[in-house]
Description:
alpha/beta
Amino acid sequence: MAGERPEFEGDAVMRPLNYRVMFEVEDDHWWFVGRRAIVLAQIRDFLAAGRGAAILDIGCGTGATMDALRDFGRVQGIDLSMLPLGFSRQRGHLSVACASATALPFGNSGFDLVTALDVIEHLDDDVAGLSEIRRVLRPGAIGLLFVPAFPSLWGPNDDQSGHRRRYRLSGFSTAIEAAGLKIERISYANFAMFPAIWLGRRLLSLLGRVDQSENRINHRLINRLLARIFAAEAGWLRKRRLPFGVSIIAVVRRPIDGQVAINTDQQSGANQNQ
């Protein structure tokens, strides 16, 4: 891995095994299915399908999210490692490149939508990565962010995935503001699975199962049920916030040039819940 990306030593990537596991399960594993449902519901509120939007998926991984984003326009992807990009190409995504989220290889103001799903937590400098998202968005365009929540949920999967941190809502809001982005919506997500994931990660740590990939925990008899439970939050999060969850989802906007990035009352209310 190091030989593939010597210029990106400050950023963290997943272990090679995790990429292969992701490629194998990403289409139907409850976590990815539920996250896509929530993300796409948010995007539909701000961006019409079929409008030919210019879209960037940062940390595109093995490409399943780009499959879904095709409904909205032309999708380009970047990732820190060549390995997941190979899997993305197997899905037919040819507009992909190996690049860092903190040094995007694109000009200013070129995208109508930027997604960064479980990416920002990998960066040594999260504000730098968020500032790059602001730079490449067109004025008034949106970004969709998804990050892991609560340091108390730290487990083997965080180490395997190369996470630098997990966030509380207030801390993530502060980083977004520091990058000059306006928060349109922000909330915790994956509320229902919080207790089970907290307990499961404690057990994996206590049992010393630090090399167990959580994506392998995918029993077919319960996978569909868990996907429905997670995806059921999609409608709720379009209008309301959740008090806690395994992750945080945020819709952000680059302010129109000359405007100050004053965030919405919804953000203020979210911060008061902390």
